[in-house]
């Protein structure tokens, strides 16, 4: 069976670049693009098919900041026989926050919890001992332990929502490995580096980024994490696609890196996480899952 890869946020930025790069690695890979905007998703699909006419590309509407959307998308995706890789490229790059229609902090729900619910709903497709599956969480070098609190894991009282959500992502990945490795599901965390995408351009005016871009290229001589382009930023995801899931270290974060001469490679660094904290946080996620799904009259994981 050809690998089936589900990518959230696949219509732009790193998600779109990942789709293109995976098809170059394996023209037989079957892609499922999970996006909020079906118009943008269709445009991305057209670009992919123009370069790879025989590619198998399907679309599903998914807004990870809406649990109703997540559940609808999961129901549609469950019609497939398997999902071999799920990559989370959808997210919010902001320290500012608000409340969603689900009554949750927007950054927490978009960057972590919406994806967590999707994974839980897709457990029957993801868990397979004969052909292990891989979750790839998009984290950040800005995932800071100091920004996260178990007593306020949605970060409703703080000013570093993004940093907190990314550290929470690291914790969730560690905990998922503890519970699902024996069922053939593995979880890894990547950092794409500093990438210029629509999310980045939303922080400051576009003309500002154009002015400082030459400086950013020069900084690459001193730091490996200035990947700058979505193509480069997807390096770690592409590398993971080619690895055996069981061979990966659950406590490592895999970084997309670019040398001063433009050569892409993958670096790894141990995450600053404690497995005991990861376990406590995972139980809190399960409690929150039970609460919100009961409110929506939706079932827990169908497995």
- Biggest β-sheet strands, sense, barrel: 8 strands, mixed
Strand order of the largest sheet: 3-2-1-4-5-6-7-8
Distance between the amino and carboxyl termini: 22 Å
What is the string of SSEs from the N terminus onward? EHEHEHEHHEHEHHHHEEH
- Coarse shape: globular
- Please give the count of helices: 11
Q: What class would the helix/strand composition place it in?
A: alpha/beta
Calculate Rg over CA atoms: 18 Å
Number of strands: 8
Low-confidence parts lasting 5 or more residues at pLDDT below 50? none
Strand content: 15-25%
Provide mean pLDDT, rounded: 90
The share of residues in helices is 40-55%
EC number: 1.1.1.210, 1.1.1.270, 1.1.1.62
Pfam families: adh_short
Keywords: Endoplasmic reticulum, Glycoprotein, Lipid biosynthesis, Lipid metabolism, Membrane, NAD, NADP, Oxidoreductase, Steroid biosynthesis, Transmembrane, Transmembrane helix
Family: Belongs to the short-chain dehydrogenases/reductases (SDR) family. ERG27 subfamily.
Structure, described:
- With 303 residues, the chain is of the alpha/beta class.
- 42% of the residues lie in helices and 16% in strands.
- It is built from eleven helices and eight strands.
- An eight-stranded mixed β-sheet has the order 3-2-1-4-5-6-7-8, sandwiched between helices.
- Strand 5, helix 6 and strand 6 (185-191) form a beta-alpha-beta unit.
- Helix 1 (13-25) runs parallel beside helix 10.
- The radius of gyration is 18 Å and the shape is globular.
- The chain starts with a strand and ends in an 8-residue tail after the last helix.
